[in-house]
Design goal:
381 residues; alpha/beta; nine-stranded mixed β-sheet; three-stranded antiparallel β-sheet; 15 helices; 40% helix
Length: 381
């Protein structure tokens, strides 16, 4: 009789896109068909050779699968279908698992969408970023707003009833009024989920090398508050620092990250948390292609988390959720009360008005969210 292990999430990395955006520092880039073909063969080999993670008598139930990138929708759909077929053979995937694929407007066809659905994909994440043509060009996006609308409509017609739309704010020369209009434009389409991120200038990106006229700190603060206020008018509830959903459509895969559900990353550079160990695959494509048949040989940066490190992760990941962290969950996991370990820090920020306690939960206040990074650093030794 098989023993049921804790639930597991899967992440599959597709490192290809048509063109790097000006702000992007993800492990991705353009590639020809032969390079893509070689990568997918290696990816399938990695999946086939994963049993070293699972004992013969043990079984995880996979509760979510996320195919990200890069832009997975740039590649031939039959490769996506093969990946999903191999995952079903290798893992016990829950009948109601959330299966997401990321896509960019201008890269989707009805054939691709039909293929995704036929292989079990039930959630689509569309990278819009902005409905304004000037902003799209400035960000280096490959699509127009009209192409986004075509892709969105096509996805609805194909049968997708769970769609996320990505938006970006605090981008160069953006005004507060312009951002509010962007929010309304997206919300009026009624996607089930909206992710709204502020621009972060990362070293090594084209934006890092440019002199950009960005909204000032006060304006960015107001843009963030506007996001929750405007989206609430359309029925979206903020459940995480950057994510908003209609009732019943919170992204389960993202929630799993914040709640430290174990996850296995498959593909180039993919990160994992498994059996108390954090590790990631090699970021070197040549090494990945050569060694993917031996998954243990491509694992890098292995870190066996101490109990203290697990506590720290519980805090700085869990506090990203607007519902916060549950005191009883902390005690159940670690056998000690939250106040015994972090009482001094919690009291400090509660008195400052940045944290609040209610119904057995600790969470950020609205002012606390805006200084969350410095507060979360206090929970790390």
């Amino acid at each position: 009789m098989n023993k049921t292990l804790p639930p597991l999430e899967l992440y599959v990395h597709i490192p290809f896109c048509i063109k790097k955006c000006a702000y992007c520092d993800f492990l991705s880039g353009p590639a020809g068909r032969e390079e893509q073909k070689a990568y997918f063969h290696a990816l399938l080999e990695e999946i086939r050779n994963l049993p070293d993670f699972f004992g013969e008598q043990d079984t995880h139930e996979v509760v979510s699968v996320f195919i990200g990138g890069g832009t997975p929708s740039t590649v031939d759909e039959h490769w996506i279908g093969e990946i999903l077929d191999h995952l079903k053979k290798k893992f016990r995937i829950s009948p109601d698992a959330e299966v997401t694929i990321e896509a960019n407007p201008g890269t989707l066809t009805r054939e691709k969408l039909d293929c995704y659905i036929s292989h079990g994909v039930n959630r689509l994440s569309l990278g819009l970023q902005s409905p304004r043509e000037a902003e799209l060009r400035m960000l280096g996006r490959i699509h127009t707003y009209e192409q986004f609308l075509e892709s969105y409509t096509m996805a609805r017609t194909a049968g997708f009833s769970n769609i996320n739309v990505d938006l970006m704010f605090a981008i160069p020369e953006q005004t507060r009024e312009g951002w509010i209009q962007n929010l309304r434009t997206a919300a009026e389409l009624r996607p089930e989920h909206i992710s709204a991120y502020s621009l972060i200038i990362e070293e090594g990106t084209p934006f890092y090398e440019r002199e950009l006229v960005l909204p000032d700190e006060d304006t960015e603060y107001l843009m963030y508050e506007d996001t929750a206020d405007v989206l609430a008018q359309y029925g979206y509830r903020q459940y995480e620092i950057s994510n908003y959903a209609m009732e019943g459509y919170r992204c389960r895969h993202n929630l799993g990250y914040w709640k430290r559900t174990e996850y296995l990353g498959i593909g180039l550079g993919a990160a994992s948390l498994y059996d108390g160990v954090r590790f990631s695959n090699t970021r070197d494509m040549k090494e990945y292609l050569q060694k993917s048949k031996s998954p243990q040989d491509i694992r890098k940066d292995r870190t066996k988390l101490t109990v203290r490190e697990q506590m720290e992760e519980f805090m700085f990941l869990g506090l990203r959720m607007t519902e916060g962290i549950r005191e009883d969950d902390f005690e159940e996991q670690f056998g000690i009360t939250l106040s015994q370990v972090y009482g001094t820090i919690l009291d400090k920020y509660e008195k400052m008005g940045f944290l609040e306690q209610s119904g057995g939960y600790w969470r950020f206040t609205r002012p606390g969210i805006h200084v969350s990074n410095s507060i979360l650093a206090d929970f790390i030794e």
